[in-house]
Each structure stands twice: as C-alpha cells, then as structure tokens.
Amino acid sequence: MTEILYPILYLFAAALYILALKWMNSPATARRGVWAGETGMLLAVVGTLLRFEVVEYHWIMLAFLVGAAIGAPLALKMPMTAVPQRTAIAQAFGALAAALIGTAELFESHPHGFTLVALTVEMLLGYVTFTASLVAFGKLQELLPGRPMTYRGQNIANLSVLAIAIALGVAMNQTVDPTAIFPFFVGFSLLFGVLLIMPIGGADMPTVIALLNSYAGLSASAMGFAFDNKLLIVAGALDGSSGLILSIIMCRAMNRSFTNVLFGAFGTLQTSAKGEVEQRPVRSASPEEAASILDAARSVIIIPGYGLAVAQAQHKLREMYDILTRRGVDVRFAIHPVAGRMPGHMNVLLAEADIPYDKMVEMDEINGEFPMCDVALVIGANDVVNPAAKNDPTSPIAGMPILEVDQARTVMIIKRGMAAGFAGIDNELYYMDKTLMLFGDAKSFVSSLVKELGAQVAA
Amino acid sequence: MHSYEVGLWIFLLAAFLGFELIRRVSPLLHTPLMSLTNAISSIAVVGAILVAGHQDASTFAKVLGCLAVTASTINAVGGYLITDRTLKMFKKRGER
Hints:
The complex is a heterodimer of chains A (459) and B (96). Chain A has helices at residues 2-23, 30-50, 58-77, 83-109, 113-140, 154-172, 178-197, 205-227, 230-253, 258-263, 287-296, 306-311, 314-326, 345-352, 363-366, 388-391, 442-458, and strands at 299-304, 330-335, 360-362, 375-379, 410-415, 435-439. Chain A has 459 residues and is an alpha/beta fold. A 6-stranded parallel sheet of chain A has the order 3-2-1-4-5-6. In chain A, helix 8 (205-227) runs antiparallel to helix 9 and helix 13 packs parallel to helix 17. The longest helix of chain A is centred in the N-terminal third of the chain and has 28 residues, at 113-140. Chain B has a domain at 28-89. Classes of the chains: A alpha/beta (459), B mainly alpha (96). At the A-B interface, helix 1, helix 2, helix 3, helix 4 and helix 8 of A face helix 1, helix 2, helix 3 and helix 4 of B.
C-alpha cells in the first residue's frame, strides 16, 4: 500500500514546489508560495518515512527536533540586516547535508557506473559549496576581512586545485576501491571552496551568493540521480536554475562576465590610480539647507545603497518619507539590482522599515524619470550612480548600467567623507554644479533632516 | 530507456521550467526568493532519511545520515520561517 502512496506524495510535493515558485512572482501571492513549499516538504518527508526500507525512526526524529530547535531561532531572531549572512550559512548547511549523504552512500552501497558519477558530482558540489558558503558567511559577518584577498598567480593556483579535485573525482570512477581516493578528493574540494571565495569582495557578494545557491540546488539534483529519485531531481533543478538566473541578472547589472566576477578580484586593481586624483572643490550643505530644498521639491527619488544598511538608517528614512509624503512630495526609491550584499537586499531593508513596496522602483523603470525629478538623494551608494560608467570608456566600471542620478535637477549625496567607493573609482557626480554633498553618518544626517523638516512644519 | 535517461529528461524540463518561473519573479522579492529556493533545496532531507533509516545501515551511515537530517532540517525550518517573516513586511501603501 505505502509503495503506491509514496510516489503519489512525491508527485504532489513536486507540483507544490513548482506552484511555490510561481506564486513568488507577486507580493500579493508570495506568502501562499511559502505555504506551498512547506506543504510540499511535509508530504515528501511523510512519504519517505512510509517507505518500507526506512525502518529506523528514533534517531531521525531526534535529528528533526535538533534541526528545528536550531533553525527556528536562527530565522526568527536574526535581524533583517543580517539576511545575506543567514542565506550564506543556510547554504553551507544545505551543501553539508548533500555532501554527507553522498559520503555515506559511497561507503555503504559501493556504487558503480552512473550512480557513482552522480555521487561524485554531488559530493564535489556539496563540499565546495560548504566551505565556499562558510567563507562567504565569514566575510559578510566581518569575521574575515571583506576586501578581496589576492596574491600573484592566484587564478592559476585556484584552477589547479579545482583541476586536481576533478581529476581525483574521475579517478574514483576508474578504480575498484573509490574510498581509497575519497579523502584526497574531499580535501581538495574543501580547499577549492575556500580559495574560490577568498578573492571575492563585498560588492560581488550578490553574484556569488546566487551562484552558491545554484550549486546547492545542482548538488541536490545530482543526489536525485544517485538515488533515482525524481522529486530530488526536480527540486534541485528548480533551485539550480533559480540561483543561476539570479547570478546572471547580477552580472548583467554590473556589465561583467562570470569569469570576471570569480577571477577578476574587483576593487584591488585601482588603488594605484587613486593618488592621481586632484583635490577638486565640492559644494556641501547643512541639514537645514538640505531640508528646505527637500521641502520645496515636488518629486524626490531616494537612492539607497549598502551604506544605508551599515548605518541602520532605514527607520529614520521612513520618518523622513512620512513627513515628505504628508506634505504632498512624491517620494520614491530607486533600487539598483546590485545595491547591497545580496539580490533584493535593499527592498527587504526598506520593507522592514514599513516603506510600501509600490514606492520601490527598479532601475529600468525609474531611469526615465530622473530628468523630471527635483531632488535625487543618494544614501550610502556610490558606484551604482557613477556617470563614469556611461561617459568614460576607460573606467573600470565602463558599461555598467547605472541609476542616472546626474539627470536630476538637484543631486544630494549623504556621505561620510570624500573616500572613493568600493571599486576605488572617483565619482564625477560629486563635482557637478547641481550636486550638494551632505557630509555625515547616514543615520544621524537623516535624523537631522527629519528634525529640520519637523521644525519647518511648526513654523 | 534507462532510469538515468528518464532522470536527465526530467532535469532538462525542470531546469527550463525553473528559468521561466524565476524570470517572472519581481526583483522586489529576490531576497525572499533566495531563502525560499534554499528551503526547497533542503529536500535533500529525503536522501538523508533514506540513508539514516535504511534497514541495513551501518553505524557510520546512521551517524552521517542523522547529521544530514539535522543540517537539512535547520535549512528547511529556518528557510521557510524567514521567507514568511520577510514577506510579511512587504506592504502596499495604506496597508500598514
């Protein structure tokens, strides 16, 4: 009886997963998508426990409890600014699970032929993604330096380690006893995961996080081939294509290729050029002056960047948004695809501060509106608004799509000092006649703006 | 047709379906999308249960299997909860 039941449960689970992704297309139905995903998972687990070859329950139940006891607080207590770190550590757990399952299967059932190939792919992706996600977590949590770590001959060294790991994987498929080669295969896979992420800087994290997401999915799919389980193949393929498409979107938003992101070590090469930048005059303004300009504006576009997250200024920004909106100013938020440390990071940050999502506008939609906009207010963003991407073909960010802030009637930039952005490139925007630099910490400056705007109401 | 051949066809179709579905997801929701797909990939728990609960499993396989069940449960529970928590924050004007 159960032998007919579990394939049906698996089939429903796969259908629910597909619906889950379909319902994610709009905020109105997205929570239904989560429900579908949860139900699908539940059906899959129940179906698996019903299978006749599964006889041992006690330890599995204990493992469920321990996993839930760790996973739930991690999800409920984690502050929203830590979402990129959480995603990285979750990927590490997922990859570790896939790798351990592959390992157990290798030693238990002495696989050969196609099954062994699938297990090898599963373990390679699993172990690489495990350490890679851990290093990404370390960088995002600032346990490790966030700047790219590079040395001469790095790419050759990294590729050699990968080549050795793959060669050992191939060798495992050629010998009588793959378990003899296994420890070396795992060692090189783990090492490659670490080396892969070391040279990646914070600005490239969105692409890399998405790519690791894709690897974790492909690893689950490979497991599906090894276990001849169609549900695993489908779920893994959905996750794999999702991660891949997100990382392609991120790459396009920076006008860079995959190989450039993974091996280009952005953000280190331009340090020498910085010295040549001459000191040029900029116009700065006090919170009082800035507030009166904002007050007089009809439309304001705010451009948030990672600096907003660092300064935790999103709630103060909401207060400012409320005051301005109440006075009939049209306030919108322009979101660059790679702003922040993971895809969609800025949207979550603003949503957390109760800013309505219909006010967050994508780059392609808002770019045509900048010429009609009275004030463009840049907070904690730099390279994504740098006109050099359009005007200077020799710039390291040449060709990268930007938010065309320079088209606005007045540009205001909240910034701590004149230091260059992540890519280490000077920004023309700061020196334009219509630009006002607002020097200070994002949170305290927005607070003073809120105070000034409030005072002007009272007056 | 071999079983792995069927598997490859399924993989191909599911991957293209995935591309079409994800392409339609608004960039607004890319962060919750990632936590959701992450939770979905913790379907690896199925493999973990098969390894840990198998009638002929050695102690070694049971230990690894149970560790894998724990790791994927952390991922699944955490992933679904945080996706829902994130999505709850997305409100239209006038909804708050």
